[in-house]
């Protein structure tokens, strides 16, 4: 009896192909689950993606702009500080110029005040009591002097009152020293010429006589 082997051989080949396909499918699923396959030893690694040249150029320009902006801000801050310093210095210089001009003018006015004081000191009390005309003239000169001194005070010029005050070399100029038993040593007992200050700075020291300190 003879058998037909052709059908059996075709069936075996079909089963073998089905098994290989199933095995390949399982291998592919396993690779997908475990991620991309690593290159075998000795094989070159895949190259990293290259950035677009336009993006690189834009990034470099942006970095340069940031540096330029920081430099400009620093320059602006310095310029602003320098300008404020210049403003302050200008104010000081302008004030100095005003003070100097006022100081020169005030010193000239002090001569007029000295003349008023000199005129009033030279009038004796007996004459004031006996002569009504001299008394009226004296009062007029004294009133004029007071108004004059008030006007000076409006511009920061003040009289130094040294009488019976301790001698201060910053405010007083000692003309002579005399022992005075009834006065405290080192104090001013006589004023030869009044002193004045301009905005709390000595315009002219008072010329005074000082009680001598006993040794």
UniProtKB/TrEMBL annotation:
Keywords: Chaperone, Mitochondrion. Pfam families: GrpE (PF01025). Transmembrane segments: none annotated. SUPFAM superfamilies: Coiled-coil domain of nucleotide exchange factor GrpE, Head domain of nucleotide exchange factor GrpE. Residues 56-66 have a biased composition (Basic and acidic residues). Residues 1-66 are annotated as: Disordered. InterPro entries: GrpE (IPR000740), GrpE_CC (IPR013805), GrpE_head (IPR009012). It is found in: Mitochondrion matrix. Gene3D superfamilies: 3.90.20.20, Head domain of nucleotide exchange factor GrpE (2.30.22.10). Residues 1-39 have a biased composition (Low complexity). It comes from the Eukaryota. Belongs to the GrpE family. Essential component of the PAM complex, a complex required for the translocation of transit peptide-containing proteins from the inner membrane into the mitochondrial matrix in an ATP-dependent manner. This is GrpE protein homolog. It comes from Lodderomyces beijingensis. The lineage of its organism: Eukaryota, Fungi, Dikarya, Ascomycota, Saccharomycotina.
């Amino acid at each position: 009896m003879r058998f037909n082997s052709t059908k059996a051989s075709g069936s075996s080949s079909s089963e073998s192909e089905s098994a290989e396909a199933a095995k390949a499918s399982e291998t592919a699923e396993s690779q997908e689950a475990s991620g991309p396959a690593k290159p075998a030893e000795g094989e070159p690694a895949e190259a990293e993606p290259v950035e677009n040249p336009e993006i690189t150029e834009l990034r470099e320009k942006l970095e340069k702009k940031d540096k330029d902006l920081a430099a400009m801000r620093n320059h602006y801050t310095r310029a602003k500080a320098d300008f404020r310093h210049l403003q302050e210095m200008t104010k000081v210089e302008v004030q100095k110029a005003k003070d100097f001009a006022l100081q020169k003018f005030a010193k000239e006015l002090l001569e007029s005040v000295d003349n008023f004081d000199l005129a009033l000191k030279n009038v004796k009390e007996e004459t004031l009591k006996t002569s009504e005309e001299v008394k009226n003239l004296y009062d007029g000169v004294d009133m004029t002097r007071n108004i004059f001194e008030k006007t000076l005070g409006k511009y920061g010029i003040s009289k130094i009152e040294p009488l019976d005050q301790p001698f201060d070399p910053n405010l007083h100029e000692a003309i002579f020293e005399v022992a005075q038993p009834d006065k405290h040593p080192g104090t001013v007992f006589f004023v030869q010429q009044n002193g004045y200050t301009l905005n709390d700075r000595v315009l002219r020291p008072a010329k005074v006589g000082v009680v001598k300190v006993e040794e």
